[in-house]
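Illustration: HDIG domain-containing protein.
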Amino acid sequence: MNTNDELFTSINEHLLGDEKPSIYLNKICKTPEFKVYPFNMLLALQDSKQSPKHHPEGNVWNHTMLVVDEAANRKYQSKDAEVFMWAALLHDIGKPPTTKVRKGRITSYNHDTFGAKLADEFLSSLDAPKDFIDSTCALVRFHMHVLYVINNLPFGNVQKLKQCTDVHELALLGLCDRLGRTGSSISEEEKNIQLFLSKIQE
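Result:
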């Protein structure tokens, strides 16, 4: 087993076993091994800024750590905890290459679709099983649809979403994503997820 495989296995164990995987992730991100491909794709999250209005917690890494910890507390609700936890870790991997300042606003348009491709590249480079990769990348690809559906935005493809992934798994990831922000309200975000489920199942 090479160093990358060992690190992947170690991250997997902490994602599935820790109450707060962020503690381990914040530790290993400082190691030389984490600067090597493909883990440097995750390290890039630390240099990716976000809108202070929507993400007062700061950069994408900070947000991802909050999301991963939320997911760790809810993974028992998932049909596949391993897929769910890796989707939580990789859901915004597409933000670094898509983040731009437009008219004074920090945006990351299409980071979901681009992120699905990067997540596939990341996991494929580690020889993860294809069904695991496909399921994880589908959640990454469609995670923004929670926002699209709730706000009646003319983006995305709900029909393809239903074909490619489980609506309830996506809703659970969406809840963790929305709670992974400083100052978020559990009751408000749970209502938003219920709204998403009711609208998408109409």
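Reading the tokens back as a structure: The longest strand covers residues 100-102.
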